[in-house]
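Write out the bound-state structure for pyridoxine-5'-phosphate.
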Amino acid sequence: MLELGVNIDHVATLRQARRTYEPDPVTASLLAELAGADGITCHLREDRRHIQDRDLHLLKQMVQVKLNLECACESEVLEIACQTKPDQVTLVPEKREEVTTEGGLDVVGQWEKVASSVKKLQDAGIPVSLFLDPDSAQIEAGATMNVEAIELHTGVYALSKIGPDREKALAQLKVASAEIVDAGIRLHAGHGLNYQNVQAVAAIDQMVELNIGHAIVSRAVLVGFERAVREMKAAMLQKS
Ligand code: PXP
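---
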């Protein structure tokens, strides 16, 4: 069955905006689990702009579903990954100045670096997924690394307008998906998926995991807003 990995990075983004203790991404993960999440995903970025080392360690202890750690092919975070041993590591590209992961890993251009990162993680017993653009050359190169999964970057599809552009992006995702499945690799996808555009990606043959964050955190803020205001009003009016 198709599994949902809930990315909780932006719960931590909100906390880091105030450098305080709330909202806690670990608490959010446990609520996601109660609501039926099949996995929890977090990205330990080099600049620690959202998830902190403390979060990862607590997530490892608390999360009962699959814990998927996204990280760059850089020795510091790879070392942390090997020590923490999440259920899966998804290797992603990382640039300091980007707002979010803007494209897939360049496995063609950085074969040695990616392959040695994969080996390090697999030697530590951790299954590896590569975050790749729906591009045949990248998928072919990724498939030579004996990885357990490839996650297709759905950003172009998600950002394209409904109509021919979206259809073209979806067609590219379908071709890439077939290439991954034909190579005997688990098919994952994610980035920019929301309540309106997820259906077509979820329907791709043999899709097994979708990782979704921003849309879920955004909706949580809005659907929870009225209740939060009502509760504050009640707290103000409580007799002390
Ligand atoms: N998959 C990967 C590899 C990502 O880097 C991200 C963003 O951190 C996501 C999925 C989730 O993307 P979004 O927050 O747009 O749902």
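---
The first helix runs from residue 9 to 18.
Residues 3-237 form a domain with the TIM Barrel fold (CATH 3.20.20.70).
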